[in-house]
Write a structure and sequence with these properties.
Elements lengths: L1 E2 L8 E4 L2 E11 L7 E8 L5 E7 L3 E4 L3 E10 L3 E6 L5 E5 H4 L11 E7 L2 E6 L3 E9 L13 E5 L4 E4 L8 E5 L5 E4 L1
Antiparallel strand pairs: 1-6, 2-3, 2-6, 3-4, 4-5, 7-8, 7-10, 8-9, 10-11, 12-13, 12-15, 13-14, 15-16
């Protein structure tokens, strides 16, 4: 059990026998009132969204998950398939359960898959991923403003704001937590 003030984005909680993934949280301490934590969570079974408010002193149960290193294999449109490199066991997760993480998945990437009671419930992405730029506008010659970025589409379909010197075919490193450009590889 953890206190409500320890809740963080991405954490999986066990509430009333159901698993919920925290999508966002806000710890508020308004004036002379008691502090509270406002959360937005997704039910991992049904996919429904739920807003909940916890008092600062409330206790919630953090779900303890088993994690396995797996390789991302492919997508068949709606499901994404992963394989355990030791046992060759394959599991699949649907697009709704993975959410925005699908924009960072490319074949043969090693991903940590989380299991609860033997069933896959989600994935943990690495801090950064390297993606190839498939489409971007050409750099403007003699542009003097140095902090102007341009949109670039990556091989997974993710659109990232990049510096003007990045061109089609370049490999860029993207932060998976924020979706921002980190560097050219």
């Amino acid at each position: 059990m953890i206190t409500a003030t320890e809740i963080r984005k991405g954490m999986i909680l066990n509430l009333e026998g159901e698993l919920y993934q925290v999508l966002s949280f806000h710890h508020a301490t308004p004036g002379n009132l008691r502090g509270f934590v406002q959360t937005k969570m997704r039910n991992l079974t049904s996919g429904t969204l739920r807003d909940m408010r916890f008092r600062s002193i409330d206790k919630v149960e953090k779900a303890y998950l088993d994690s396995q290193e797996m390789s991302y294999l492919y997508s068949d449109g709606e499901n994404f398939h992963f394989m355990n490199n030791e046992t060759y066991e394959q599991v699949s997760l649907d697009r709704e359960r993975l959410g925005d993480a699908v924009d960072y998945l490319k074949a043969d990437t090693i991903i940590t898959v989380d299991f609860f009671d033997g069933k896959p419930v989600g994935i943990e992405l690495p801090a950064t991923v390297d993606l190839a730029v498939t489409e971007t506008t050409p750099a403007i010659r003699n542009a003097t403003v140095s902090n102007v970025n341009k949109p670039a589409t990556t091989e997974t379909g993710l659109v990232v704001q990049v510096p003007p010197f990045v061109e089609e075919g370049d490999i860029i490193r993207v932060n998976t937590a924020t979706g921002e450009y980190v560097s050219r590889v």
